[in-house]
Specification:
Layout: E1 9-10, H1 11-18, E2 21-23, E3 29-30, E4 32-33, E5 43-46, H2 53-58, E6 63-66, E7 80-82, H3 86-101, E8 108-109, E9 114-115, E10 120-121, E11 126-127, E12 132-133, E13 138-139, E14 144-145, E15 150-151, E16 156-157, E17 162-163, E18 168-169, E19 173-175, E20 180-181, E21 186-189, E22 194-196, E23 202-204, E24 211-213, E25 218-219, E26 224-226, E27 233-235, E28 240-241, E29 246-247, E30 252-253, E31 258-259, E32 264-265, E33 270-271, E34 276-277, E35 282-283, E36 288-289, E37 294-295, E38 300-301, E39 310-312, E40 318-319, H4 320-331, H5 333-360
C-alpha cells in the first residue's frame, strides 16, 4: 500500500465485507497489504502456490489469505482468511483498502474546466482542472474526468467511469460504465486510411465511424484506439488492455479479452471472447481470432485462428506444441546441414563408383561364376 490505513481494519471487518472463512482473531487489526517478504506485525499478506509455503512460514505477517488446500501448510500461523480463490480475494481486498487510502473527491466542476452549454454533466460527476467537454456530450453519474482531459463532441461517458489526466476522447465516442482509461491514451483518432493516387501520392479517406467501449473495460496508458472508417471500432465488456497498444480502425474485440503491452491489431481484425494476447504480438488485418485463443508474447498472427489453443511463433504462427517441436529442430539445423552434406557426398561417391564399374565391365581375370 502507498500509505497505511488509518483507522486500520480488523479481520472481522474484512471477512464481513469480502466473505471467506476466518481462522483466528476477529479483532486483530491490520493497516497494510504487503508481500510475504516485506510483511510486519501489522500486515496482511497472501499466498497462492505451494512453492510460497517456506516464504510464508518465514514471514512476519499478522494474517494470511490462503486457499483451503494450502491452509494446513500454515498450521503454525494463527490468523488465516481462507478462500478458494486467494488471488482474487487479495485483489478485492486491495480495492477495499485503496478506497480507504484514496477516497473519491467530492463531486465538483473545476472553475478552469470548459464545458459546452449543450453538454450534460451529472451533478455527481468530478470534473478536474482544465477539462474540455464538447457539444452534445453526456457525462454520467459519478464519472471522474481527470485534469487536462479533452472529451469531444457527441460523446457519452457512463456512470462510475474514470478518465485519468491527459486522456483524449475525440468526437462521437461512446464509453460504458465502470471504465478506467489511463493517461495519454487517445480514443477516436483517425484510422490509417489512404487511397493510392496515380501516378503517385495518397488520398486521405475520412474516417466516419466512431469508437464504442463497453462496460468494465480498462485501458492502459498511451494506447491508441482508432475510430472506424465507416462502422465503429468496438471493444466489448470486460476487456483489459495494457499500456502502449494500437487498435486500428474497424477492429472488434470480444468480451473479457486481455491484451498485454505493445501489441498491435491491424484494421478490421475480429478478436473473439476471452482471448489472451501476449505483449508485442501483432494481429494482421481482416482476419479472425476465435474465442478462447491464447497468443504468446511476440507472436505474429497472419492468418485466421479458428480453433482455441496456445499459439506461438513469428511466421507462420502455429499451435504452441507444434512450434516448440519446430524450434527444437531449428536449433539443430547447423548439425543437420553437415550430416546432409556428408550423406550427399557419400551418395555421390557411390554413384560415381557404380558408373565406373558399369563402363569398365567385370574385373580382368575374374571367373564368370564369381
Amino acid at each position: 500500500m502507498r500509505r497505511t490505513l488509518n483507522p486500520p481494519l480488523t479481520l472481522g471487518e474484512i471477512c464481513a465485507a469480502l466473505g471467506g472463512a476466518l481462522q483466528g482473531d476477529v479483532s486483530l487489526q491490520v493497516d497494510r497489504l504487503t508481500s510475504l517478504r516485506s510483511a510486519d506485525e501489522r500486515s496482511i499478506s497472501f499466498l497462492v502456490r505451494p512453492q510460497q509455503r517456506e516464504a510464508a512460514l518465514a514471514s512476519r505477517a499478522a494474517a494470511y489469505i490462503v486457499s483451503p488446500a494450502l491452509a494446513p501448510a500454515l498450521s503454525g500461523k494463527a490468523n488465516l482468511l481462507i478462500d478458494p480463490q486467494p488471488y482474487l480475494y487479495y485483489a478485492r481486498l486491495a480495492a477495499l483498502m485503496d478506497l480507504r487510502v484514496n477516497p473519491l473527491p467530492v463531486p465538483a466542476v473545476a472553475a478552469s474546466a470548459r464545458i459546452d452549454a449543450s453538454a450534460s454533466v451529472s451533478p455527481t460527476a468530478i470534473i478536474e482542472d482544465c477539462v474540455v467537454i464538447g457539444a452534445g456530450t453526456h457525462i454520467g453519474d459519478h464519472a471522474w474526468i481527470g485534469a487536462g482531459t479533452v472529451v469531444g463532441e457527441h460523446c457519452r461517458i457512463g456512470a462510475h467511469t474514470r478518465l485519468h489526466p491527459g486522456v483524449s476522447l475525440l468526437a462521437d465516442c461512446d464509453v460504458g460504465e465502470r471504465v478506467i482509461i489511463h493517461s495519454g491514451t487517445v480514443i477516436g483518432s483517425d484510422g490509417f486510411g489512404f487511397a493510392p493516387r496515380k501516378p503517385s501520392g495518397w488520398q486521405k479517406i475520412p474516417q466516419l465511424g466512431g469508437v464504442v467501449i463497453g462496460n468494465d473495460v480498462e485501458i492502459g496508458a498511451n494506447c491508441c484506439i482508432d475510430r472506424g472508417a465507416l462502422d465503429d471500432t468496438v471493444i466489448e465488456d470486460g476487456c483489459k488492455l495494457d499500456n502502449l497498444i494500437q487498435v486500428a480502425h474497424n477492429v472488434r474485440i470480444g468480451e473479457d479479452t486481455a491484451i498485454a503491452a505493445c501489441a498491435g491489431i491491424a484494421g478490421s481484425a475480429q478478436i473473439g471472447k476471452r482471448v489472451q494476447i501476449g505483449g508485442a504480438s501483432g494481429i494482421a488485418g481482416h482476419i479472425t481470432v476465435c474465442d478462447d485463443a491464447i497468443i504468446s508474447t511476440m507472436t505474429l498472427i497472419s492468418r485466421s485462428v479458428t480453433k482455441p489453443g496456445f499459439y506461438s511463433g513469428i511466421f507462420p504462427s502455429m499451435e504452441n506444441a507444434q512450434w516448440e517441436r519446430a524450434a527444437a529442430v531449428v536449433r539443430q539445423l547447423p548439425e543437420l546441414r553437415k550430416r546432409v552434406r556428408r550423406l550427399e557426398q557419400s551418395s555421390l561417391e557411390q554413384e560415381q563408383s557404380r558408373s565406373l564399374r558399369a563402363e569398365t565391365g567385370p574385373d580382368e581375370g575374374a571367373d564368370e561364376n564369381d
